[in-house]
Amino acid sequence: MRLFVLSGLLLAVFQTGVWAAANSTETETPPLCGINCIEQEVLKSTCDATNATCICTNVELTETISLCVTANCTVREALLVQSYSKHSCGAPSRDRSTMVWVIGVVFLVLGIISFCLRVMARIFLGTHTWGADDWVMLLAVLMMIPLNSISFPISRMLGKDIWNVHPDDITDFLYLFFWDELLYLGALPVTKISILLFYLKIFPAKTTRIACWVFIGLNVGYFIAFELVSIFQCSPIEGAWRAWDKEFPAKCNNINMQGWMAAVFNIVLDLGTLILPMPELWALSLSLRKKVQIILIVTIVSIVRLQSLASYATTHNVTQDYVEVGYWSTIEVPVGIICACMPSIRSLFSQVFPKVFGSTQRSTPPYTNLSNQSKPLSNPSRGSKMPTQQAIRVDTNFSVRSKHRDDSSTVELTTMEHSHEHRRPSSETKRPTTPSESV
């Protein structure tokens, strides 16, 4: 990892009084290798040894001192020199650690609440509505909980400048980040698999179902590939969090390239999962504005997430520059879970508050008994047990459509039954019906 190449390390101060003032603070005295570099390079520069302002603001001098320290000091010593020079020159100290854990906790709570409402919907509508998509979503939630919970202990380091973090804490930070990365790369495809299994419940078209299974396979492949790549990113494995100071012998892959590949493939799978049901959803009475909005939402999120990876594994200030990568990870996974749970949440609310959300259940279905076995129709007025009409088999294809206006913010989706047998409808109920099982 190139986070050890420290640019802009030293903003030196040489006045005797300034050195004494600096030493009176809590900042540790810099190692001898750093002091020698400062003295050597300042004497070569245009700055006077008594001019602290010139020494602190001269970019060229800073670069030459940085090169000297990198060549003559260890990484841990270089951090001490950098910390001393930053404090001596009055550089502001940034701390975004509170934001890190607050975002993680807030979205953790929202994700758990969404899944609990999904479970309540299944209980309310009947345990038979619990399916494979719910089991897979449970797995995603079990990954989300430790992923977002890590935000609290990692905030002790993440959000602060690396020169203000104790070297041993940097090792702890990278160890937590290692597990955070594994949970993140696992939760993303698992969430998408749950969504694809949900598609299989509501879309009957053969081409759509085949595409769903293909994307499920791709997500499984993504899960296996990037979990293995991340686990074995360094040899030995503990080099991922111990080799940062170059004192632990390890050989690591190109972490930056690995991060970008994982991000790009994930975005492709995100877009594929979004576009997959579009042929069927396009037939809905949605306005063009709403269809464009759906695509723009995913596009914007993808761009923002890629931007946060710009400094991934190349930054010199890892504990500060990884803040965006960290909190976007703790946002993206819960938001995916929330979106996947929304259809079930609406089904629950439509039952509890039918006047507000509407109901997906038909109050008096025209077919009171649907069965895979054809039964004869009897004539109750004559008490006869002999059929008066022959039973018929009907293959009915249902299309997904909205019952609401074009500008409605919701579209009801129900589980599709591809074929079944039923009695011949009476003259009052000759229209096709939508299966009553809520999703």
From TrEMBL:
<dbReference type="GO" id="GO:0005576">
    <property type="term" value="C:extracellular region"/>
</dbReference>
<keyword id="KW-0732">Signal</keyword>
<feature type="region of interest" description="Disordered">
    <location>
        <begin position="360"/>
        <end position="439"/>
    </location>
</feature>
<keyword id="KW-0336">GPI-anchor</keyword>
<protein>
    <recommendedName>
        <fullName>CFEM domain-containing protein</fullName>
    </recommendedName>
</protein>
<dbReference type="Pfam" id="PF20684">
    <property type="entry name" value="Fung_rhodopsin"/>
</dbReference>
<keyword id="KW-1015">Disulfide bond</keyword>
<keyword id="KW-0812">Transmembrane</keyword>
<dbReference type="GO" id="GO:0098552">
    <property type="term" value="C:side of membrane"/>
</dbReference>
<feature type="compositionally biased region" description="Polar residues">
    <location>
        <begin position="360"/>
        <end position="400"/>
    </location>
</feature>
<dbReference type="InterPro" id="IPR052337">
    <property type="entry name" value="SAT4-like"/>
</dbReference>
<feature type="signal peptide">
    <location>
        <begin position="1"/>
        <end position="20"/>
    </location>
</feature>
<feature type="transmembrane region" description="Helical">
    <location>
        <begin position="135"/>
        <end position="154"/>
    </location>
</feature>
<keyword id="KW-1133">Transmembrane helix</keyword>
<comment type="similarity">
    <text>Belongs to the SAT4 family.</text>
</comment>
<feature type="compositionally biased region" description="Basic and acidic residues">
    <location>
        <begin position="415"/>
        <end position="431"/>
    </location>
</feature>
<keyword id="KW-0472">Membrane</keyword>
<comment type="similarity">
    <text>Belongs to the RBT5 family.</text>
</comment>
<dbReference type="InterPro" id="IPR008427">
    <property type="entry name" value="Extracellular_membr_CFEM_dom"/>
</dbReference>
<dbReference type="InterPro" id="IPR049326">
    <property type="entry name" value="Rhodopsin_dom_fungi"/>
</dbReference>
<feature type="transmembrane region" description="Helical">
    <location>
        <begin position="99"/>
        <end position="123"/>
    </location>
</feature>
<feature type="transmembrane region" description="Helical">
    <location>
        <begin position="182"/>
        <end position="200"/>
    </location>
</feature>
<keyword id="KW-0964">Secreted</keyword>
<feature type="domain" description="CFEM">
    <location>
        <begin position="26"/>
        <end position="90"/>
    </location>
</feature>
<feature type="transmembrane region" description="Helical">
    <location>
        <begin position="212"/>
        <end position="232"/>
    </location>
</feature>
<keyword id="KW-0449">Lipoprotein</keyword>
<keyword id="KW-0325">Glycoprotein</keyword>
<dbReference type="Pfam" id="PF05730">
    <property type="entry name" value="CFEM"/>
</dbReference>
